[in-house]
Amino acid sequence: MLNSVFVLVPITSVLALSFAYYFYKQMTKSSEGTETMQRIAQHVRKGASAYLKQQYKVVLIVFLCITAIFSYMAYGLGVQNNWVPFAFLTGGCFSALAGFFGMKAATTASARVANACRDSLNSGLRLAFRSGAVMGLVVVGLVLADISIWFTVLNHFIEDMEGGYKLMTICAIMVTFGMGASTQALFARVGGGIYTKAADVGADLVGKVEANIPEDDPRNPATIADNVGDNVGDVAGMGADLFESFAASILASALLGAAAYFDMGDVQLGAVLAPMIIAAIGTLLSIVGIFLVRTREGASQKELLRSLNIGVYFSAALIVVLSYFALKFLNLPNFVGIWGSIIAGLAAGIGIGQSTEYYTSASYKPTISIAKSSETGPATVIIAGVGTGLLSTAIPLLIVTVAIILSYCFATGFQFGADTINMGLYGIGIAAVGMLSTLGITLATDAYGPIADNAGGNAEMSNLGPEVRKRTDALDSLGNTTAATGKGFAIGSAALTALALLTSYFEEVRMMFVKVLDAPDTLINNVPAGEATFYDFVQHYEIHLMNPLVICGMFIGVMAVFMFSGMTMNAVGRAAQKMVDEVRRQFRTIAGIMEGTAEPDYARCVEISTKGAQREMMKPALMALAIPVVVGLVLGVPGISGLLIGTITSGFALAIFMANSGGAWDNAKKYIEEGNFGGKGSEAHKATVIGDTVGDPFKDTSGPSLNILIKLMVMASVVTVGLAVTYHIL
Amino acid sequence: MLNSVFVLVPITSVLALSFAYYFYKQMTKSSEGTETMQRIAQHVRKGASAYLKQQYKVVLIVFLCITAIFSYMAYGLGVQNNWVPFAFLTGGCFSALAGFFGMKAATTASARVANACRDSLNSGLRLAFRSGAVMGLVVVGLVLADISIWFTVLNHFIEDMEGGYKLMTICAIMVTFGMGASTQALFARVGGGIYTKAADVGADLVGKVEANIPEDDPRNPATIADNVGDNVGDVAGMGADLFESFAASILASALLGAAAYFDMGDVQLGAVLAPMIIAAIGTLLSIVGIFLVRTREGASQKELLRSLNIGVYFSAALIVVLSYFALKFLNLPNFVGIWGSIIAGLAAGIGIGQSTEYYTSASYKPTISIAKSSETGPATVIIAGVGTGLLSTAIPLLIVTVAIILSYCFATGFQFGADTINMGLYGIGIAAVGMLSTLGITLATDAYGPIADNAGGNAEMSNLGPEVRKRTDALDSLGNTTAATGKGFAIGSAALTALALLTSYFEEVRMMFVKVLDAPDTLINNVPAGEATFYDFVQHYEIHLMNPLVICGMFIGVMAVFMFSGMTMNAVGRAAQKMVDEVRRQFRTIAGIMEGTAEPDYARCVEISTKGAQREMMKPALMALAIPVVVGLVLGVPGISGLLIGTITSGFALAIFMANSGGAWDNAKKYIEEGNFGGKGSEAHKATVIGDTVGDPFKDTSGPSLNILIKLMVMASVVTVGLAVTYHIL
């Protein structure tokens, strides 16, 4: 009977994809407005698809290489399951597909949203939001589709196993398709992040600072690239990031569930299905929630935000109720505790979002202080922003800490120790699933941001009337708020997902040990390897804090985080430099550009950003892929364990710091533009423009890229676990 | 016989202090120059002692409170050794004394160095360096004195113990006087760091940027406060920091030695004495090295640097040779391996210094790139500096990782596991001792920096001729180089010391467990507690990476690091703001100040910095002291373990990032001032001035303060171990 519940997952998947298609079709039916509007949208669409094409080429090569390596590991060395190369590929393909559809929807929507704003604020909001929902639903729909297919296929083909082993093996294989999603996300986030900020910083440095023309001015040659960048970074990048978190949290939890309730028959199956079912229910609720979003004409920012929040909170509230019954139905012995873990995860997600808003919104003290510090020049703006960003890590880190403890304790009934640890770790995984369960609608609010932003850009460049501009500005401003909280949410869920993956790493170690070394009688922590639990392996490998290999791994993990951020930061600097040179060149050589009589060469700027992003993303990407493998080969399983926890903890903090500093600088600038501390054009305003420019790579490149690094390092360790177990040097 | 070797320690202590006195006396004999020079020096001296007095008042109160708490823990609750309150007090007093003498020497020297530069470059260099050596020798001399006294006293009083227990107990008590040094260092580094940068940033923002007058211009009211700050931060702060590292590395190693060679009679004694003897030999070599420093007239920067390095490298080379014989004499069974650990530590210290130089000196690519990025304005300067700083963490972290592995492996003969772990951890401790062994002379080169800087300031303000200015500039520039490498060295040694302390934490857990719970028969990892090793306790407390308490501790450790940095960063911002207001006020209200006909109110600025530093340092200081206690009470020993390793790894990385970003910005500015990319007064120069101002709190406040945090958190955990063992909630 339990098995038949699983059918909810593919059904939900089909529903989500169908609604995505429905929203997309509805959107394409609305008019794209004047000829100028269409032309501009066309520019952006062309730029975006040129970029995607180029990126997918690179990704294809990388995927072929990695698949070859995995195949050799599986079929040549025998240190990996034979299904892994295929699982890896589908994860990557599905994520790429989601990115493609999301981008398509977003770039098709922007001019239409601008046009809808000529009618009313409500039309604009709904069109923008539902276009964002395309991305949200495609992402969750494709994740659920991938899970449905593989769970069915593996159930069918893996037959020669007894008891709990079958489900364990299926889950262990499925986790690795997260590696495909992770690799795809790496390129999407890092490449997209570099692209968008090279264009943005380049456009601002010459346009705003030197030529003194406003943002989104059609005379600025980099302005189309800047608009493309919003889609590339915040739609495709963010989508790929959360695609992975959603998939990995579900699959890691399934694996942890299979281990925690091993040999308990239907209960084990229930534990494996629980994360999938909860994700499916959350997706259904997201669809309903999307329909609830609407507003009235002349709504204030607060009202607009409430409109979005109604949908989000509706889904969150109902998932709390429905998951109780779902868990009860799945018949887990400690289902009330597990339910508590879900709530802990959900609450943590909301809490982190709130804290992000507090630290980055100009309605609160921190951002106002940064704005005030502009009175003594740009240096104090930077110092205040860095100080605030560093401080802002405290609450999210505390929230995650509390969520970990609570979700563990709820699941174990506040017991610690070897007997209950499996259950507790399952609780942590389930908390991550809880946090992400309503991703369909949260991601819709995220993807809404760049659509509204681009609609504003389109309206500006097409010289639509001030009434329309006011409406698009209102939508854009709302998008900034959701973007900030969305970033906090993405980081928080990345950290929790990575933790769940890390705990499942040891399950993989155990299975690989038994399979590869084929020594079921070797004593592991005084127990034959064949009967040893993952906990015995933790003891056996001395994954404790006095093991120098663990300590060294941790130092390297922290190193990876800082180095990766430095690389992406410098990448933006270099790429932006090229953009500045090009924009200056165009201003110098194209006559009539400043008078608006000649059109700048937008395509050239798009090309520069695209090429710059491609070139610059290779080094950090390769580093992120190589480090776990090298550490595994040199320091073995203890080194990897230290590496991963070091990366997760410090990466989480650094990501929050960067995202919040950047967000706060951005809003401090906007606060001054609203007329405070001298308003637009004052020295104080110039100082905050500098802060905002510094913040761009902080919040949109280096910060979000860390989400990927955190998860990718764990994933790469999971899929190469056979190497670390078999060939390590120390 | 072995016991008689110990006499080398007090003898060296007396020698070091005598030479410090000798250098001081020699220095006071030289002339302080013209009346103006004396007057300015008088201002700085008065400001410095006003600050110290104020700081020591606060520290006294804190010390009394903490002593009261420790006394209650020892005599009331019985969860701490009765000697600890006293050990705590002497550690604090001796560190404070060292700071006092160092400051006195530095502030007495500056005018004299300026005056000596009227004679020749060599006179200037020697006088400045030997005045710096006063600080170096006082620090190591007082550490060795404190060790001599306590080792003798405890040997005398602790008699009722058998076998290895006596030495274990003595060492465990002695480690806690590091807590006194740590607390004193906290206030010296954090308070000093805020003081110096509030003055510096305040002086620069109004002086350089608004009023367009050069640095050290006597018309700037904040200039005396700025000069005082150099002494307060870089002499007293740095000295207290390294006082603690030197003491803690020796004592933690002694404790680890006592545990590793437990019950081996004279061998155990040898292991305990080894770190002390090596420190003593290093100190003797430092004294000789100090005498080797001299230069010729018209020496280039390279030659000047070589002059200093001759002394440093001489001491380092000889310590390698002599420590071999010392260890052989002490009769440790694996003395060649231990010797290898010493070399690993020494090499790591030098390597970190070199890497710091590469990333912060304008002779290399990174800093030149930052300077070049100024062509596109301040925003790209900040982005490039942050990117470079983040990247620059890679090499030091790798070096520390390799040093940990090597020093562990050398000491154990490349064995891992329960049997040899004690030996390996001793190796890590000894590596820290090796790195710090020649501290006498390395600290002399550090303290030399602010003396030369102040001499330059004095020469500028006294209008000495261009020939003299050229000489003081040369000395100052050399000081900048040594300051940068000195910072890297201080951070690296802090990390290694903290690691040694962390490993000794578990020894303390073991002893506390047996003593406090008085249950020697309780089974710990299947062994009666009375016979259990610290390793059994690691297993018993589940200090492994799957324990949620450990993971939570790690998140909180990372949080503490980021929060602490944010607090100190914002503290500088706020205090600098006050200084800016005051300087602006003086420019506005004191007639004739800009014409040089009226003297500004220097004292008022000194007072503002002093008060600002006092007020601002309280919150971060209390947080640093409270977190380990609270985490211990809530999460117990596993939580503390995670907390400490999280703090050490991420704190190390963040400290390096901040120090190197700051150093690179500073030198990028100087590089442009030398005439590159437009030179002084150009837009590029203005952009780098902003970078430099941002870098000030990075490199001189938040970065160095992290050294303290890293060590203090471990120390605080060590001294409150009784609470965590007995009263923890989870």
Average pLDDT number of chain A: 91
* Tally of contiguous helical segments of chain A: 22
Which two chains have the most extensive interface, and how many residues on each?
Answer: A-B, 85 and 85 residues
Total E-strand runs of chain A: 2
Write a short abstract of this structure.
The structure is a homodimer of 730-residue chains. Helix content of chain A is 83%, strand content 1%. By secondary structure, the first copy, chain A, is mainly alpha-helical.
Topology summary:
Two copies of one chain form a homodimer.
Chain A lengths: L1 H4 L2 H22 L5 H43 L6 H36 L1 H37 L7 H11 L1 H35 L11 H38 L5 H26 L9 H30 L4 H26 L4 H9 L4 H14 L2 H19 L8 H16 L2 H23 L4 H51 L6 E2 L2 E2 L5 H7 L7 H42 L12 H72 L9 H37 L1 H7 L3
Antiparallel strand pairs in A: 1-2
Helix pairs in contact in A: 2-5, 2-9, 3-4, 3-8, 3-20, 4-5, 4-7, 4-8, 4-16, 4-17, 5-6, 5-8, 5-9, 5-16, 6-8, 7-8, 7-19, 7-20, 7-21, 8-9, 8-15, 8-16, 8-17, 8-20, 8-21, 9-10, 9-15, 9-16, 10-11, 11-14, 11-15, 11-17, 12-13, 12-20, 13-20, 13-21, 14-15, 15-17, 16-17, 17-18, ...
Enzyme class (chains A, B): translocase
Subcellular location (chains A, B): Cell membrane; Endomembrane system
Catalytic activity (chains A, B): Na(+)(in) + diphosphate + H2O = Na(+)(out) + 2 phosphate + H(+)
Overview features:
ion transport (chains A, B), homodimer, 730 residues, two-stranded antiparallel ribbon, 2 strands, transmembrane (chains A, B)
Task: Give a written overview of the molecule.
The first copy, chain A, contains 22 helices and 2 strands. Chain A has 730 residues and is mainly alpha-helical. Chain A has one domain (2-727). A two-stranded antiparallel ribbon of chain A has the order 1-2. In chain A, a hairpin with a 2-residue loop joins strand 1 and strand 2. The model of chain A has no long low-confidence stretch (mean pLDDT 91).
